[in-house]
Amino acid sequence: MNGWLGKDGIHTQKRPRIPLLRFGLLAGLISGTALGLAMKLLGNLSGTAVYVLLLNVDFIQWLPHPMTELAEFSLHLMVALPLGILFLVLLRIWKSPLGLGLGMSLAIACCTWIPLTQLSERVPSSADTAALLWWITGHLIYGAVLAGFGYLWMKKGWDKEWASPYIS
Known about the structure:
Layout: E1 4-5, E2 11-12, H1 20-46, H2 50-55, H3 69-90, H4 97-118, H5 129-155
Helix pairs in contact: 1-3, 1-5, 4-5
């Protein structure tokens, strides 16, 4: 039968579902874009190369060099997209969208700062504390945008639809 079982055991109309993958990809796209725009703005205002650091892929030998800004930004979004899905999956465990969003963003900022600053001459030095603060600030903006998606996900009750450990 085409439908779902309600609490009373009676089949009802098919319940509308928001696919986790679709909403997660949207969350990743918008939050990743917000991070990129924030880094570009913060880099321009501060004179630090945090935007270059965000997009820099010089160290990946098999990629063509030089790359356009759009191509580098697209690679940045390829990382952000699955992180949006991961964020929604982790909301099953950690029920605070703001805590999870900010926690994820701080973890990403802290875990990427030293390795990425060591891989190119075009990016800030790992000892540049001003650039580090801008790097963290940009990632906190990213986390806040992710949290907004998490609040919407939970407010609509879509998180309840994914109680199964299997993602459909």
